[in-house]
Design brief:
Blueprint: H1 3-16, H2 23-33, E1 37-41, H3 45-57, E2 61-65, H4 68-77, E3 82-87, H5 95-103, E4 111-117, H6 122-131, E5 135-138, H7 143-175, H8 185-202
Parallel strand pairs: 1-2, 1-3, 3-4, 4-5
Helix pairs in contact: 1-2, 1-7, 2-7, 4-5
Length: about 200
Amino acid sequence: YRIKDRALAFVRAALAAGRRITEYDVQQDMARAFREEGLIADSDPDRLRQLESWLVKWGYEVWPARNGVEAWNRLSAEKSPIVAVLAWQMDAMHGIDVCRRIRLQPELPTAYVLLVAEKRDPEQLLEGLNAGADDFLFAPLDAVETRARVRTGARIVEVEQALKASQDALRVQSTRDGVTGSWNHSAILEMLQNERERARRKS
């Protein structure tokens, strides 16, 4: 299951059993189901292979991208929050530009972005932060530091995924009858009101 699908399945099972649940219950179930995912993008094939090898070893499901356009296409199609490790400079589109695009699209799920910089330049880091980067890695990459920073991002993504899934699932619970699973009285009235407003705007 994707996270949202599992959350909805959890709520439907609770409804079928006549059991009321809270947001905390859903989040706890999400924590048990969460699988860590990450996108890595770098035009340096050696560093891309190194990052992929590390993340797979640490238990992540990894999507590698060889340039900024591939990274953007993947991130713009993503339906759930994700950790993204982007090289600052890449073919086709730089990582910092991918980051800017992500932040300019508020309808996209949250991405925790780690930019890989070639040096610790304060002005460059400020530029990265202004573009929306969450953290940085520095070449040459260190395995221990990389693992720690990626893990921090994964924890934040995990919380955001669980929160969103629980909100969606509890929205279903609030609109369904606990016994039959069909729309409840309040949900039907709200839908009728929305249809009335839509008809009024069209008239």
